[in-house]
Amino acid sequence: MVVIMESGADEAQIEAVIDRLNGFGFDVHRSSGVNQTVLGAVGVKPGFDKRHIEVLDGVAEVYRVTEPYKFASRSWKRENTTIDLGKVLIGGDDVVVMAGPCSVESEEQIETTAAAVAAAGATILRGGAFKPRSSPYSFQGLGESGLKMMRAAADRNGLLVVTEAMEVGHLGLVAEYADIIQIGARNMQNYSLLRELGTINRPVFLKRGLSATIEEWLMSAEYVLASGNTRVILCERGIRTFEPSTRNTLDLSAVPVVKAKTHLPVFVDPSHGVGIRNKVIPLARAAVAVGADGLMVEVHPNPDAALSDGPQSLFVDQFEDLMEQSRAIARVVGRRIAGPAEVTA
Ligand code: PEP
Ligand code: MN
Question: Which residue among 50, 55, 159, 322 is the one 20 to 30 A from 278 at the CA level?
Fold first, then answer.
């Protein structure tokens, strides 16, 4: 941490700041010029709040030079984290595609979707059984029966399952049916839920909060990692901005930024990111081009009849186009789309 004193700061103020820093356990290196003093404070603790120093008399600026997270950072672990799920390796060379409906609605709907996305080359089935809806009057998901339908459809079609758990009380149940547990954007800062994920032997798919900075998102990942679960996948899903033309603003710049800061795999969800069906494919292409380790895409056999997020769900033939175009982009950036289609190609 670097503390820059005001140019008029007197010796007593400088000494008081040094004492305070020593009190917090820092080693302090002082450098005094003609007008200004700069203090280098070594040994910052991950949770240290720099405002303790900013409020002191004579202090002009305080900069942290280390990240407030540890286990999530690339300086802690240089090589990429890979998550081996048997059929699928996440965070490796191949780009992994998760696809399926927003919500599991019926046996027939999830089976039709699973068969279609598997045939197009997806390897993981997505779908919600516990749904975080903005309105309490909207469809809330089928709960455990939805999980059962989804597991069966995934197994019949050789897919893995990713699905959301919204509360601590449901974690055990969701873990019985899911290969990966999704934590939704609205729960990204539900710290009791994040901490509890350390007790679950399942990778965690952590979506970025609606208004979360990259640092807040990585701090949420840190909660999971610090609780003992080392298998965390990050997912950019669009953030709230002043722009109303799209549902959210998909922050694709987050992908290279986050990949430089962390060793964790980074996915992109263009469906929630843009919220408009005909904009999903171009953003999926862009996500692969910018270096995403995977995509999460909403697909429905009859989007017009979907119980949630129909307007952003792709028709099956559109998803086939998305896969074909993503394969082409992946080749350009020296990667492949993971899955049976590529193995035989
Ligand atoms: C979802 O994936 O169905 C979902 C609700 O996503 P988010 O939490 O990103 O809104
Ligand atoms: Mn949705």
Answer: 159
DSSP secondary structure of 262-324: BSS-EEE-HHHHH--HHHHHHHHHHHHHHT-SEEEEEB-SSGGG-SS-GGGPBPHHHHHHHHH
Using the predicted structure, report yes or no on whether residue 345 has a pLDDT greater than 60. Answer: no
pTM above 0.70, yes or no: yes
Atom of ligand 1 nearest to the CA of 308: 3
Residue 236: its H or E element: strand 232-236
As a whole number, mean pLDDT of residues 309-333 equals 98
Tens of pLDDT, residue by residue over 103-152, are 999 999 999 999 999 999 999 999 999 999 999 999 999 999 999 999 99
Q: Indicate the CATH number of 2-63 among 2.60.40.3710, 3.30.70.1140, 3.50.50.60, 3.90.230.10.
A: 3.30.70.1140
Ligand 1, atom 8: nearest CA belongs to which residue? 184
Nearest bound ligand to the CA of residue 205: 1
Confidence of residue 47 (pLDDT cuts 50, 70, 90): confident
Which pLDDT value is given to residue 313? 98
Task: List pocket residues of ligand 1, CB cut-off 6 Å.
Answer: 102, 128, 132, 184-186, 207, 237, 272
CATH 3.20.20.70 positions along the chain are 83-344
Mutate to test the pocket of ligand 1, among 124, 135, 142, 164 (most ligand atoms within 8 A of CB): 164
Outline which parts of the chain fall under CATH 3.30.70.1140. Answer: 2-63
Which class in CATH covers the domain with range 83-344? alpha beta
